[in-house]
Amino acid sequence: MQKQPIYPFAALVGQENMKLALKANLVNPSIGGVLIRGEKGTAKSTAVRALAELLPEQEVVTGCAYGCNPHDPKTMCQDCLTRLEKGEKLEADTRRVRVVELPVGATEDRLLGTLDLETALKEGQTRFQPGILAAANRQLLYVDEVNLLDDHLVDALLDAAAMGVNTVEREAMSVSHPARFTLVGTMNPEEGELRPQLTDRFGLCVQVRGLTDPNSRQKVIKLRLLYEKDPYEFSRSYEAEGEALTKELARARDLLPKVEYSQAIIDRVVAISLALEVDGHRGDLTMLKTAVTLAALEQRNQVELKDVDQAALLALPHRLRRRPLAEMEFDIADRLKRV
């Protein structure tokens, strides 16, 4: 049976900041992912799942459970590295980067993977069953209702996001594997807030609300009904726009290493962080990386001040001091005018 096509990213109406934050992470994963906050029915999950058609292709070691990069020994799993050190040529396949989803209610073993103690004791061999973090290596890891995750799963995500490695320990046995991923989370603040430690791990944060323009709301209804009537035909009608968007992102990725910024740009980044009383330096770095990415998306090789201001809207809302997230309103634009 043919799998029903996902709702096209190009067919999403409005929510420009959300779409921009997602596209920026596809171009530059080092930004650190995005947290999407908003009420029910605002296309949060639809937008993330629609990224699957826009993700680039990547080379992976054939048969590797972690999809290691065959050209980067520094990020390889131990098995691939050992084979390489023995002089073995690593065969490679090409596949599209995937959206790996952490299901609601997933167990710790499902997330981290499991060690087979019985086999280890009987045969003296360590047998590891990889989990979601293994599948998510070099991929996009999507967590819906991220604010409802159990604390022990949050801790595991924090450790993996910080170290880029997942370590599973049982009794006297231990297995580690690479777990570098772009983290994307969606949540409804009405159902509870997210732990500050995990909130800070998201590079960008956007707030989405229901559209207030009557024409836009009508368009949402009409497009959704067309999709439900015939998802295959609807998806085909957006193929050209989807291909154009994919090429746009590919051009931005190619241009990204060539984008330059001046001292004035750094001055603006620091001035904004100080004026808004942003804690730490992670926000500064993320703001600059995002500004560089925004310039690449517009096919410019020079960052402009407007890029920094736009980046601040995406990189700083969840980092402002003395502002409870439950009351967070994205009014940074008004404050930037006074910087």
From TrEMBL:
Pathway: Porphyrin-containing compound metabolism; bacteriochlorophyll biosynthesis. GO terms for molecular function: ATP binding. It comes from the Bacteria. Involved in bacteriochlorophyll biosynthesis; introduces a magnesium ion into protoporphyrin IX to yield Mg-protoporphyrin IX. Belongs to the Mg-chelatase subunits D/I family. SMART domains: AAA. Keywords: ATP-binding, Nucleotide-binding. The lineage of its organism: Bacteria, Pseudomonadati, Thermodesulfobacteriota, Desulfarculia, Desulfarculales. Signal peptide: none annotated. InterPro entries: AAA+_ATPase (IPR003593), CHLI-like (IPR045006), ChlI/MoxR_AAA_lid (IPR041628), Mg_chelatse_chII-like_cat_dom (IPR000523), P-loop_NTPase (IPR027417). Residues 30-212 form the AAA+ ATPase domain. This is Mg-protoporphyrin IX chelatase. CDD domains: AAA.
